[in-house]
Amino acid sequence: MSIPIIDKTFTNQDFSGQKLSSTEYDNCIFEQCNFMETDMSVVTFLECRFIGCNFTKVMIKQTAFRDECFFEECKLVGANFASCDDFMFSVKFKGCLLDYSSFYGFEIKNIQFDDCKLNGTDFTEANLTGASFLNSDLSNTIFVNTIAEKVDFTTASNFDIDPARNRLKKAKFSKQGLSGLLRKYDIIVQ
Questions:
Q1: What is the pLDDT of residue 34?
Q2: How many whole angstroms separate alpha carbon 91 and alpha carbon 113?
Q3: d(CA 10, CA 93)
Q4: How far is CA 164 from CA 140, 146, 167, 169, in A?
Q5: What are phi and psi of 70, to 5 degrees?
Q6: Phi, psi at 104, each rounded to 5°
């Protein structure tokens, strides 16, 4: 096993197309780093911060994100979080682009998406209990057999959720968001 990397800051590093060694990063900061097409499989991140990083087409198979890893202003297009290590998985997103990412069948209770764009993101069969989508754009986001109990959608926009195909007990919606629950009925809410 390799030696853990602790309390290190990486700025403007280009990891694109590389394979990161299977090590542990603990309390590290990654600023403006390029992880495009990087293989981060079997890497562990504990309490790390990613700021302004590009994760387009990143491979994160059995990657561990624990102790609330924080992504801010990152591009995570097509990231397959469903392939991550689910043990103690803990992340938070702020101002991120998560278009076409997948959380299929993943348990991500209490996850926070603040000011994010999630166009086409897949939450099929995921457990989002207690999650928050503060000011997030959910255009074309997929919710099928999703557990979305106690989820805060009050300031989310452009979502389309079928209450008959998802568990929404005690989920919060604004009056303006009601049309996103009724779209399948072709009802006009004004």
A1: 98
A2: 9
A3: 19
A4: 18, 11, 8, 12
A5: -115, 125
A6: -50, 120
